[in-house]
Amino acid sequence: MNYNEVIMKKLEIQFLLIVFFIPSTLIFAQYTDVINSNRPGLSKSAFSVGTKVTQFELGPYIVNEKHTPLQYEVSGFGADFAVRYGFLFEQLELNIEGIFQNDTFTDKRSTIPQENSRSNFRTIAIGAKYLLLDPYKNSENNKPNLYSYHANRKFKWKELIPAISIYAGVNIDTKNNPYVANGVEGLSPKIMLATQHNLVGGWVVVMNFQKDRIGSDQSDFQYLLTLTKSVNQKWVVFGETQGIKSDFYADNLFRFGGAHLLSDNFQLDTAVTLNTKDTPSVFNISLGASYRIDFHEDKNIDDNN
After folding, report:
1. For residue 101, what pLDDT is reported?
2. How many CB atoms lie within 10 A of CB 91?
3. Which residues pair with 266 in a beta bridge?
4. Residue ranges of domains in the chain, CATH in brackets
C-alpha cells in the first residue's frame, strides 16, 4: 500500500466515524438573496437552497482520456446535472443529481484500433441534505464595522468553525453499465459530510467526504476540497482537488475555473479538469449554468419565544 492509499484509508475511516457520531444541532439555514450554486466545481455546499426554492444546475462537457499502459483512448461529451429543492425546513434540501456521458472507447492494442460507442449514466442519485451546524446564523454578530476598514478585514477565530451538513441518498445503476464495475447494478446507499468556511475577503472553503455505492463491488471513497474567491459582486474564481479511491478506479483530479452572475437567479460558469498521471490522463472542459425559481418566504421570528 503506497502513501496516497494510506492517506485515503485514514480519511475514509475518519469520515465514517464523524458521520455516525456527529451531534445533530438544530439551527436555521442561511437563505441568500442571490443564487447559491454548487457549480462550477463538483463539491456540495453545506447550505440548502432555502424553502420553496427549486434550483437547476447543468454542465455540458467534453472528455478526453488516454490510458498509456492499457493503450486505449476515450473521447466524447457528457453533462452533469442537479435539481435541488428546499423542503419543509430551511435546513433540508431534496435533490437528484447525476452525470450522463456519451463517448467512443478506442482500443489500440491491435494493429487495427477497435472502436466501441458507449452511453449511460456514470452516476445518478436521489437524496437529501440536512444542515446540522450554522456558525453564521447570528446575523447581528456578522454585520460589517462601518467605522473601520481594517476591522472588517481582520481574521476572526470563529471563522475556523465551519457550517456542517450531512447527506444520505441512493444510487441507481443500470445493468451492464460500462462506467461502473462488472456486476454493479440496482440500488446502493451513498452518504456524505460537507463543511463550509466563509472567510474574510470573499474566500470560501468547501470540503466534502463521501462514501459511494456502499456494499457493492465498487464502493468508492471520495474527498473534494474547493477554494472560491469573489473577485467582485458578479465574478468568482475557484480551484478544486478531488481524490477518488476504489478497487475499480482511483485518481486525483484538479479543477480550475470561474463563474459569472447574470442576475439574482441565473449564473454561468466554466471549468477545466485535469490530472497528472497516464492511467488514464484526463482533460475535460465544461460550460455550465445554474437557474433557480424562487418562492422563498421569510418567516417571522418572535424573539420573546
Report:
1. 97
2. 21
3. 263, 291
4. 3-138+149-290 (2.40.160.40)
